[in-house]
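quick one before i forget lol
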Amino acid sequence: MAETTAASGRDAESSSPVGGSRPASDLAAPTVLEVLRRLDTGPRGLTEAQAGERQARFGPNVLPAHRADSWPRALLRSLRDPFTAVLLCLGLVSAAVASWGTASVILLLVAVSCVLRASGEHRADRSMAGLRDLVASTATVVRRTDDDLPPDVREIPVGELVPGDVIRLGPGDLVPADVRLLRAQALTVHQAGLTGESVPVPKDAADAAEGHGFDRPQLCFQGSSVASGSATAVVLATGARTRFAAAQGRADSSRADSAFDRSVHGISWILIRFMLLTPPLVLMANAALRDRGLETLPFAVAVAVGLTPEMLPVIVTTCLARAAALLARTHGVIVKRLPALHDLGAVDVLCLDKTGTLTQDRPVLDRALGPDGRDDPEVLRWAAVNAWWTLQLADLPTPDALDEAVLDAVDEDDLMAYDGLAALPFDPVRRLATAVVRTPGRLGTHTLVTKGAAEAVLERCALEDERRAELLARAARLADDGVRVLAVAVAERPARTRDYTPADERGLSFKGFVTFGDALAATAAEALKALTDRGVGVKILTGDHPGTAARACRDLGIPLAADEVRTADRVDDLTDTELRALARRTTVFARCTPDHKARITQALRASGHTVGYLGDGVNDLPALRTADVGIAPREAVAVARESADVVLAEKDLTAIGHSIAAGRYAGGNIAAYLRITLSSNLGNVIAMLGAGLLLPFLPMLPAQVLAQNLCFDVAQLAFAYDRPHPSVLRRPILLRPRDLLRFIVGLGLLNAVADLATFGVLALALRGLGAGDDEAAFHSGWFTENLITQALVMLLLRFGRRRAEGHRPGPVARAAVVLAVIGVLLPLSPLGPLLGLTALPIEYYLLLTAVLALYTAGLLAARARYERRRETGADGR
């Protein structure tokens, strides 16, 4: 016996999914007997000894473990951020030229940024850990303690299941492994998580080889659940050999750069080019025109540091971390990857499935139509009689979704007038159910009430062929309109005592159709309008029928032209270029496979869109990885949650709206910081280069440059705590390197003009520049002007702020005032002489006021021009 078992086990291992060489679906074609023989098992299940041997061979029935990064590993990973890398290089260069103060400040900022980012992502990993156990914990298995003993039905942990185990399934059970049905009674299975199909799928144990993939009626897969009916099945594959685990393996593959990654790399290269170009220019200019050598190297490095936005990693990480913490606290949204929050703010196309997002996972009654196509309440009454008495007499634990929708639409008291006698429950072969009742006032007569698929019911009705074809065509038109259709028929039979059988379902009198639509999600219509108002287009990628998806869109107020609904099979014949054009003008793609969803998502990204994808099933995994930001609800299958960048408390578009708003607020603050800092810094660098060529001394000492940068950096922290104007929610926020470069060059030149004008003011106020006190006065004057102009830039370049925010200044306004006060008072304070600063004559402040007034006018004109460009879409989306 041991030799036979071993041989059979080897055969199973080599020719079935048990051994990992073939997928579970390959066992659909063989008969039940052949499957049992290959797995060396039988209807009575395995013995404990066999189960133990297979557990040792195949391992526990668990998915490959997700390994979250440790805190130190997350800290090291944050060093790879390009912004951080730029600063780290500057810090090392500063240390190399003995600018210890500059190096210390820069390296401290790098450390703070890395700690903030690592802490935020580590916190998200801990939050996700609480969601990873939302899977089936036990299974009902048939096992024997010995070959000669009868089988015992018991509950065991899911992890102890092995190939060859015989299990039992009932309503509500999660399918714990890939299984082949041995027996099934009225079994329907929810497998939306695998295929996206919202309607429960009928399953049957027959040996027919119809269907393919997840649609094979003989197979049920891990990740699905029993909607109705019951079954006995044999386990084909467990653990890493299931379709579910294979999908998880694909989900762990590398993903393309997101919108944030592309923006960061573009901006980083701009900074790197400036950083590499500036010191050589300073050194060469001073050597050629002022005969200064390497003594100007610390100043050259200080200029490069002055150009670089040292606070950028800290500001970016703080903005994103604060927004992520607020989302988690107020809306239960977990942001697993902090940059994904910026991507959410940049999203202008959101791809999603219909089921569970736009609609609930249940149908509702649409209409009850008589044979003439008009509304007829009698049809609904007969459908309810069938649903009620089938439920009662067939001893079903719960009604199926369509019967529940019928019963919800009628008064239960109206059904009590009928006496139920017998029921023939629904099965996937007949595709109908019949209840036999005694109708009030009809003594000696039994009434058969049949309800089911239109084709199956009409086939059993006493109709002429022409009339039957007409009714079938009407049912098809209703289905194309996006509703599910059931036909209702009745028949009068003389009362009898013998049992009713399916043979009695003939010669029926057709009563009409009942149609069902999808129950709309309560918040979907309002959330869709909010997304549209914020410039986010919605694309529906669903496995459902195109008519069903189109009907849901129309009911929710989504305008659809005839050519905006496509079936995804068209995608297979299109080139990438053709698909990009089709994806832009199509709103609904129906009958999508996982590969279709991923390819459509990629086509939208290739068209220049920032794409978010909301999915909750195995069929969504490729698209979740392809999108700029993948979003999954908490109740999604585990592998979808692991693959997503953002996890929602519920599958609700309102939560996505809140997340997009948080991303845009954070992105708005980051964009404002970059615009203001880089334009101001570039202006200072140009002015420093010009002054270095015009003056017989350094325009500013390295210590003064460092002090000025420290003051500005501390003030800029206010951007991380600012709340931008609500106008930033109207359009996606995306950091575009080219647009940013164009902006900072224009504003930088304006800043440089203001600085050069300040030089003229200083010349007038000091009546000629020489050495000694004039050098200290020049440093002091430019130091004061620099901090005041930077404060003005902070106040005036926060776009969307056309008037003061309420009656209290925001954090940026307060920081700007403090910065200006420091610029005026520091040269006069006891710290001034330590930095080489001195008091200035009153004439300077009067002339500086005139320069600042002109500078303010120039800033306001530049802001107005930029806002006009934003409104017309010429700059950004």
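fyi The chain has 29 helices and 22 strands.
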